[in-house]
Automatic annotation (TrEMBL):
PANTHER family: RING FINGER AND CCCH-TYPE ZINC FINGER DOMAIN-CONTAINING PROTEIN, RING-TYPE E3 UBIQUITIN TRANSFERASE. It comes from Homalodisca liturata. One of its GO terms (biological process) is ubiquitin-dependent protein catabolic process. Residues 14-54 form the RING-type domain. This is RING-type domain-containing protein. It comes from the Eukaryota. The lineage of its organism: Eukaryota, Metazoa, Ecdysozoa, Arthropoda, Hexapoda. InterPro entries: Roquin_domain, Znf_RING, Znf_RING/FYVE/PHD, Znf_RING_CS.
Length: 112
């Protein structure tokens, strides 16, 4: 059985805690070994080394660079998802008040 490649969206979350990267506590921080983990996970490490290849972290955590490309991508995807969700809600709300039917079922019935 072939190994399935990870979805590209998996790169938008921390591989340690699986939470999505953000611009605050979960900002993606690049290590010298080229792995990226969120700032929160780095702070909580018991040993100051990469959780994947055990490369020592010799730079102060505050001075490690944020992976800005990954952060921008994560922000763009989140913004796109929120925009799509808002558009779906507005369309649903408009159809619900107009008595529109979808596949023969009144959209109003979903509001009862």
């Amino acid at each position: 059985m072939p190994i399935q490649a990870p979805q590209w969206t998996e790169f938008l979350s921390c591989p340690v805690c699986c939470n999505e990267f953000d611009a605050t506590l979960r900002s993606p921080v690049s290590l010298a070994c080229a792995h990226t983990v969120c700032k929160t996970c780095l702070v909580n490490l018991h040993r100051k080394q990469c959780p994947f290849d055990q490369t020592p972290i010799t730079t102060e955590l505050e001075k490690l660079p944020v992976n800005t490309a990954l952060l921008q991508l994560s922000t763009m995807v989140c913004h796109g998802f929120c925009t799509t969700l808002r558009m779906c809600f507005l369309k649903y709300n408009k159809n619900a008040h107009s008595g529109t039917t979808v596949d023969g079922v009144s959209v109003m019935s979903g509001l009862l």
